[in-house]
Design goal:
It is built from two helices and twelve strands; from the N terminus they run βββββββββββαβα. It is 14% helix and 46% strand.
């Protein structure tokens, strides 16, 4: 995954583009390598918790909601977000948890509140990242986990951390 000026490009180990993260008409959209919309992110800034809703394709219709994300506490030393699948309407227990390292150099996604890891991301320090401002990350996604879901979570984490979560 490469980040340059807020633009994300996700490639496989051979350099083939898997996903791009675009801002289109005031919306943030994750598209596949051919430009087809996978999910649309709708970010909201609330008084105590940043919140994001993720919808199927280029929709923002409630019937197309896939999952939502919120920051459990506004005051955190290490950024943590809770993920709730669309059918988890009570949001009493999260379905996934994303925890970022102290300096934001890595993060881990867990199943619920357990210690079971489903994906990890680590910053790769390269000459290109230092000289050209292109941050590169190595992303590991464990078996039976959707890549687009994981990429969307990383995009949300970045949006909450660097933009305060709001549009």
């Amino acid at each position: 995954m490469t980040i340059t000026d807020g633009n994300f490009v996700v490639t496989d180990v051979n350099g083939n583009i898997l996903f791009k993260f675009l801002s289109l008409h005031g919306r943030r959209v994750l598209v596949d390598g051919a430009g087809n919309p996978i999910v649309t992110l709708k970010l909201k800034q609330m008084s105590l918790h940043d919140r994001c809703q993720v919808f199927k394709g280029d929709s923002t219709d409630a019937s197309d909601l896939l999952f939502s994300v919120r920051r459990p506490s506004m005051f955190q030393l290490k950024l943590k977000i809770d993920v709730f699948l669309a059918n988890n309407t009570k949001e009493e227990v999260c379905d996934f948890t994303v925890k970022q390292s102290w300096l934001g150099r890595s993060c881990v996604i867990y199943a619920g509140e357990s210690s079971t890891i489903v994906a990890q991301m680590h910053n790769k320090d390269t000459v290109e990242s230092t000289l050209m401002g292109k941050d590169k990350f190595k992303v590991t996604v464990y078996p039976n986990i959707d890549y687009a879901f994981i990429v969307a979570l990383f995009m949300i984490l970045d949006a909450i951390e660097y933009t305060g979560g709001g549009e």
